[in-house]
Structures are given as structure tokens and as C-alpha cells.
Automatic annotation (TrEMBL):
Family as reported in the entry's similarity comment: Belongs to the cytochrome P450 family.
Database matches in InterPro entries: Cyt_P450 (IPR001128), Cyt_P450_sf (IPR036396), Cytochrome_P450_Monoox (IPR050196)
Record localization: Endoplasmic reticulum membrane; Microsome membrane
Keyword Magnesium in annotation: no
Protein name: Cytochrome P450
Residue spans crossing the bilayer: none
Cofactors demanded by this protein: heme
A GO CC term assigned to this protein in UniProt: endoplasmic reticulum membrane
GO molecular function: heme binding; iron ion binding; monooxygenase activity; oxidoreductase activity, acting on paired donors, with incorporation or reduction of molecular oxygen
Membrane-topology descriptor: Peripheral membrane protein
Keywords per UniProt: Endoplasmic reticulum, Heme, Iron, Membrane, Metal-binding, Microsome, Monooxygenase, Oxidoreductase
Top-level lineage group: Eukaryota
Length: 306
């Protein structure tokens, strides 16, 4: 009786959403589980299933996880309309799967937190401000080009690509060169966190927090330990970032040269405290480094290997 009551309440509460989903095309469903079978197997299998569905769809379609519909938009023009809508700012509960590693950053935070901190970070992301970081982008790009231009036997060049990506991302956050003593650990933790997040995203049963921690608790704790160690090593950079603005500290070496322009650390120290009830600026730094590095590595790897 309780389950039936919950189901009927769900149907009534989301009747408009369900009515919209019923009008859209969807892959053939199975009783009770809907299209959940498409997410069985490894990530490669799931990706192939989703690509096949997308290629056979026209614009917008949905698939069902049990009684819950998920809407998929294929056309980028339609996606832009949705993303530009002020009524679509609130994130779905699905974004909570990222919070175990990324905290309450603007990537995963509810709209009332997102609005406040997105507004504070807007000046950093303006094209006119990003132009100040072009010298850093050019420098790391030239270095990578020189490394890849050297004739050598076939080998894994991901270390060079990752070093370039993380150097570029940290320089936009701190506006100066950062010496990473634990580079291999940083690469490892970003890679492993990415794998866990993708796994959790595509395996819908892992959206349940306690089950995810039960099955992957060891991997989660190891990633968090390395992540916290890396951030601890960078903590001095935040303190230096509060005092180094647009000049070079007398007697400092070249690694302390600061790029012009506003960076994330500037915004952080202008909007203290670092940790509040609903936000932690460290989460923003982690998200920026991980997101930027992963995106650049993926894009360059795809470019070089295809």
C-alpha cells in the first residue's frame, strides 16, 4: 500500500512532465525497468547504446529509468535555448553525484548558491580578462609543441599533455607559475576521480549515495586523500596570491611573476570567508583545475589521435 501510494503521488506531482514525455519518441522499453538495460555493461557499451539512440532520433527524445523520464536534446541550437532560459537554472538532483568530489561548487550547487558565486566569478571569465592569460597559454602550447616535435619511438605522451593542461589551468587561477612536486599524484587523482564520476553517472543505481560509497568506498577515500594532499600543497599559493598582485616581489624568482588580469584567487580573497555554511571556495578551485585539465587533455588527445 505504501509503495502504491508513493507511486501515485509521484504520478500526480509530475503529471505535466510525464505528459510531455509521453508525446516524445523513446527507445523500446521493458516492463518496470524501462530503458535501464541500455546502461548495463561497461562505459563503452553504454556510450554505443546512447550514440545509436541519438543517431536514430529527431531533435528531442526521452528514455525511462523505471517510471522516471530523462529528456535528451540532440540539436545544439535547442540546447542553447534551454540553457539560456532563466527558468532552467535549477539543477536536477542528478548533479548531486558530483558533490562527493567537487563539493558545492557552481558546477553542482543549487541555483541560489550558483547565482551568488557565478556573479562573483563573472569578471574572471569575461573575454577581456581571459586575454591577460594568453601569454601563459602560448607558452605552454609552445613547450608541448617542442616536446611532441622530437622524433621518438611510439610512446604514451599523456604526461606531457596533462602537464601542459594543468600548468595552463593553475596559471589562470593563481596568475603565476606553480611548481607541482606531486605532479604524478595530481594526474592520477584527476584521472581516477573522472573515471568514478563517469561510472556513477552512467550506472543509475550508483546515484544512491550509500550504495556508491559501499561499493567504491576504498577508491573514493584514496582519491579524497590524494586530492586533499594536493590542495594542501597549494594552500601557500593562496596566501601568496593575496599579496602578489601585478608586481614582482623584490628578490623573488621568475616563478613568482604574476600575470595581469583578475584570477579566481583574487575573487576568493575579496569575498571571504573561504568556507561558509553553503559554500567553500576550495571546491571552486578543485572544480576549475579538474574540469579545465580534463577538458584540455581530452580535446588534445582526440585531436592528436584521430
Amino acid at each position: 500500500v505504501l509503495l502504491l501510494t508513493m507511486y501515485l503521488r509521484f504520478r500526480w506531482q509530475y503529471r505535466h512532465v510525464l505528459a510531455t514525455a509521453a508525446k516524445l519518441s523513446c527507445p523500446p522499453t521493458l516492463p518496470i525497468i524501462g530503458n535501464a538495460h541500455l546502461f548495463f555493461g561497461d562505459i563503452t557499451d553504454v556510450t554505443k547504446n546512447l550514440r545509436k539512440i541519438s543517431s536514430n532520433s529527431d531533435g528531442i527524445f526521452c528514455f525511462w529509468m523505471g517510471p522516471i523520464p530523462f529528456f535528451v536534446i540532440v540539436d545544439p541550437a535547442d540546447i542553447q535555448i534551454v540553457l539560456n532560459s532563466s527558468s532552467m537554472l535549477e539543477k536536477d538532483n542528478l548533479y548531486s553525484v558530483f558533490r562527493v568530489f567537487l563539493g558545492n561548487s557552481i558546477f553542482s550547487s543549487p541555483v541560489h548558491v550558483w547565482k551568488k558565486y557565478r556573479r562573483l566569478m563573472n569578471p574572471v571569465m569575461r573575454p577581456s580578462n581571459v586575454e591577460h592569460f594568453l601569454p601563459a597559454f602560448n607558452e605552454v602550447s609552445r613547450k608541448l609543441t617542442e616536446q611532441l616535435s622530437v622524433s621518438s619511438p611510439p610512446s604514451d605522451r599523456s604526461d606531457e599533455i596533462f602537464e601542459m593542461a594543468i600548468t595552463a589551468s593553475t596559471r589562470t587561477i593563481f596568475s603565476r607559475k606553480i611548481i607541482l612536486d606531486n605532479f604524478i599524484e595530481a594526474k592520477s587523482v584527476i584521472h581516477n576521480i573522472g573515471k568514478l564520476l563517469i561510472l556513477r553517472l552512467f550506472k543509475f543505481w550508483l546515484h544512491t549515495e550509500w550504495l556508491f560509497r559501499l561499493l567504491y568506498g576504498k577508491e573514493i577515500n584514496e582519491c579524497l586523500k590524494i586530492r586533499d594532499k594536493c590542495m594542501s600543497d597549494l594552500s601557500q599559493e593562496w596566501k601568496d596570491g593575496a599579496t602578489i598582485k601585478k608586481e614582482v616581489i623584490p628578490g623573488a624568482n621568475q616563478n613568482s611573476d604574476r600575470l595581469s588580469g583578475l584570477n579566481l584567487v583574487d575573487v576568493m580573497f575579496e569575498n571571504l570567508p573561504i568556507v561558509s555554511d553553503d559554500h567553500d571556495w576550495i571546491d571552486e578551485i578543485i572544480t576549475m583545475i579538474a574540469g579545465a585539465s580534463d577538458t584540455v587533455v581530452s580535446a588534445l588527445s582526440f585531436l592528436l589521435l584521430t
